[in-house]
Design goal:
Number of strands: 18
Largest sheet: 4 strands, antiparallel
Structural class: alpha+beta
Radius of gyration: 27 Å
Distance between the termini: 58 Å
Strand content: 15-25%
Helix content: 25-40%
Low-confidence stretches: 384-413
Strand order of the largest sheet: 10-11-13-12
Amino acid sequence: MSTDLSDPFDQIVDAPFDSALSERYLVYAMSTITARSLPDVRDGLKPVHRRLLWAMRLLRLDPSQGYKKCARVVGDVIGKYHPHGDQSVYDAMVRLAQTFALRYPLVDGQGNFGNIDGDNAAAYRYTEARLTQVAIDLMDGLDEDAVEFKPTYNGEENEPELFPGLFPNLLANGAAGIAVGMATSIPPHNAAELIDAAILLIDQPRAEDAQILELVKGPDFPTGGIVVDSPAAIAESYMTGRGGFRVRAKWALEDQGRGTWQIVVTEIPYGVQKGKLIEQIAALINDKKLPILADIRDESDAEIRIVLEPRARTVDPDTLIESLFRLSDLETRVPLNLNVLDHTRTPRVMSLKQALSAWVELPLSSASAILRSAIDICSSAGLSASFASRDGLSGKSTSVKSRAVPAPTRMSS
């Protein structure tokens, strides 16, 4: 029983309502920005994604192991690490498994995880999942204390503050999020191009943006499409961290014989739902807003195939497709807003070079942490260890020496 007999009203602080409200709203806004909406520039993950992968790792859901129900994973995440709604956690998990959303999926899903038509995934009691090899590479080094750990929200367990990041996840898979007063939107890129650019930055830390853009030509979307912006416009977006990319569907002309033809669309812009796109074009036909188009058919199976039939054989194909680019989502603009949390967890807009440099520093610092951990283990085991590092960024010269310890004497009974 409490023995505090003080009047609770004595603790009330007299303060102007507007200042008290603004201070509390600022605390809420910063919590939303740093703990929910913006990814870390080093591993490219938001807390919910990091906790999902960590929970799956503890469940030993490796690519070589069997699948487990998503309900089990979601339950562990919201019970141990992420005290939020189960549906929001499951939605985040579903996106990590969608091949049309992520260029390199981090979760290998089994069951209905949605499709490019816009259909939702099945409930988590029906679907199963395990980690992909990309996710394993992203977490490589956790067993060697490559990163710091922190207590969970209830203090019962520990979780990594970030992943060692041996995969350029932020730029390879992209990110999107809306916080309070700021947002982020990063399109996916080709991992091979990013690694080539990272090697350039390791060899030449002062490399110019133009040198990096010779290796990273532009975004690389999982759904394909063609970026139609000029190289100068793409370079401007990457150097400032803000801009966008005009993406068009990939199409081809098929000769049907006797002077007839049809247009076949095989790739659509990133983020466009195929079902809604077909409904949008069908509405143009029904409303007679595009009289030179007669019909649209969806002949897709595992691959996208949308067939567009002209009203007459005399219709110019280029005129028809340009009209569709103008009137439908066969052409969209994918925004670029490289707003991320830096190593001090401060939100800032970075250029492509700055984001790549921040990722390059993480695996190298993780390698140093692993070596320091190995030295501590050697020292605690009675070994003599020495560590030498030259050129802190590249870590090209490293040595660990140890002397043998006599074998323990066997006790005789």
